[in-house]
Amino acid sequence: MREMRRKWILLFCTAMVWLSACGGEEPQTAKRTLIVATDATLPPMSFLNDQNQLAGFEIDLIDAVAKQAGFEYDLINVEWNGLFGGLITKKYDLVISSVTILEERRERMAFSVPYLQSGLSLVVQRGTQGVTSLEDVQAQDGIVGAQRATTAFFYLEDYSELNKQAYELYGHAIQDLIKGEIAAVLGESTGTLYYKNNDAAVFREIKMVGDILTEEHYGIVARKDEAELLQRVNEALNKLLADGTVARLHEKWELGQAAVVPKTIASGKED
């Protein structure tokens, strides 16, 4: 009798453990506060405002994504060169910082559906004449600046004869351009648009010339082993794209023709 009672207790305990493990388990991302990293030197996408607070299109976007997906998060400011290494080593859970979706980056990290399309543009001093391309700068033996480790920096590598200068910050390159220390700056067209809309003193000194040189798509970045988190981010982004939220943020931050909101998203790709 005592032996049978012991068996029933053991079976009961085993059943309770099984039920607690299998019944109604919440997603892992719902149980922790996510760490989201951004490089706040990329106005109007992500920057520190006059109150030293994070602001910008992508700051508003990640907040909308988090609310839609139902997760809590802390947003931290990280230098560009530390974003991807910190993500891979699990210091951060997500990165949102105008990160272009590239195949070589896909080999190490996972990307959401694209939330914005932009491209690279060439900026020169407003009084500059006869320069509308990188070839023109090269012909004049000028120097082109770009932020280190960005798509603009990589783009310049194809111009082996061009004089190049790497910068830690896009804004530092613009300042050197105004001072006449370099001939041009290559960077995201959204960055130039910010100066047009928000810093008249700087924009009076510069102008964007030529065509948009590339077509780039920005995505939120996660680790490859975070499939569940990425799925929730994608579902949230698709909803925000469909209901016009992303378009309204585009209008709020006056991105204009420098950046385009994807019209439709299907299976993680643009139609």
TrEMBL record:
Span of domain Ionotropic glutamate receptor C-terminal: 33-256
GO molecular function: ligand-gated monoatomic ion channel activity
The protein's name: Putative amino acid ABC transporter, periplasmic binding protein
Record bears the keyword Transmembrane: yes
Domain Ionotropic glutamate receptor L-glutamate and glycine-binding residues, every copy: 44-89
Keyword annotations: Glycoprotein, Ion channel, Ion transport, Ligand-gated ion channel, Membrane, Receptor, Signal, Transmembrane, Transmembrane helix, Transport
Residues spanning the signal sequence: 1-23
Residues annotated as domain Solute-binding protein family 3/N-terminal: 33-257
SUPFAM superfamilies: Periplasmic binding protein-like II
The UniProt record lists the keyword Transcription regulation: no
Family: Belongs to the bacterial solute-binding protein 3 family.
InterPro entries in UniProt: Glu/Gly-bd, Iontro_rcpt_C, SBP_3_CS, Solute-binding_3/MltF_N
Topology within the bilayer: Multi-pass membrane protein
One Pfam family of this chain: SBP_bac_3
GO CC term, one of those recorded: membrane
Protein location: Cell envelope; Membrane
